[in-house]
């Protein structure tokens, strides 16, 4: 447990942003609370187990067992967009060490975390450009390019020297999980080889590791830890702690994901949905705030290079040709213009921007 740092010594100024936006919305008569009260009691009743995939079965000597595993993974990617994996090869001791290092990093003074040179200038918090509470995320993160993990050399943070080593090990382990899952899902749609991530332009120089922290929040009934969104990548591998708070959209309802200590969460991103011609689904998800406990998570994002064409598993594709850079620029433009991400619908054949806004 951790009390909210109202003085802002450790935590980012999220409370100041919240109060400013609340005052603005109230003065304008536009305050609309989150879709439902986010009390922990109501969350507990809605918790669901995601489909569970045992990755060890992919290497079984029994072809039928391998096929059953592949089918289960493809079904989960198509129907849920999310699933959990066990026997993934990322050691529990390593993840616990990552959690300790993560806590030490985030418990540094705020002015230290926001320093431009720290972890390649990858620190971000909340949404300083938010114009309404719907856009505010009660969280902070380091979104680190994998290629820069070992470049950190800051004499002021000698006590965090072990962080980059642990991050590197976690990134290596999670990348192997992502490669296995992405290759399996691609092969299921007819991709000829098991080199799908590389063929899609994804490698060590293009992917990211994100360290997340969600501080305790005194405004829980109306606050998101992370606003509803879909991931703008091919695939995300997530390790969350036991606090919980992750929710995903399922059958037009928000479903809370029940934490499981021995499992990692995998979700399909926008680019994989496009590449699969909508066979696999990139599903909207969010994190809800907690009033008493801080929450940590680590996410690996499988991204291609900026100029990589996203491509398709087969023609005809419902999408126009586009690169990852074009996609990211369009997402940023939409958020700036409308306050929300539009994403894949922008790139449907025959789509015009005016029809989406």
From TrEMBL:
- Does this entry carry the keyword Transport? no
One Pfam family this sequence matches:
DIOX_N
Q: Give a yes or no for keyword Glycosyltransferase in this entry.
A: no
Q: Which keywords label this protein?
A: Dioxygenase, Iron, Metal-binding, Oxidoreductase
Reported cofactor(s):
L-ascorbate; Fe cation
Name listed for the protein in its UniProt record: gibberellin 2beta-dioxygenase
Q: From which organism does this entry originate?
A: Triticum urartu
Per the database record, which ranges form the Fe2OG dioxygenase domain?
203-304
State which Enzyme Commission number(s) the record gives. 1.14.11.13
Class of the enzyme per the UniProt entry, highest EC level: oxidoreductase
**What Gene3D superfamilies does the database record attribute to this sequence?**
B-lactam Antibiotic, Isopenicillin N Synthase, Chain
What reaction(s) does this enzyme catalyze? gibberellin A1 + 2-oxoglutarate + O2 = gibberellin A8 + succinate + CO2
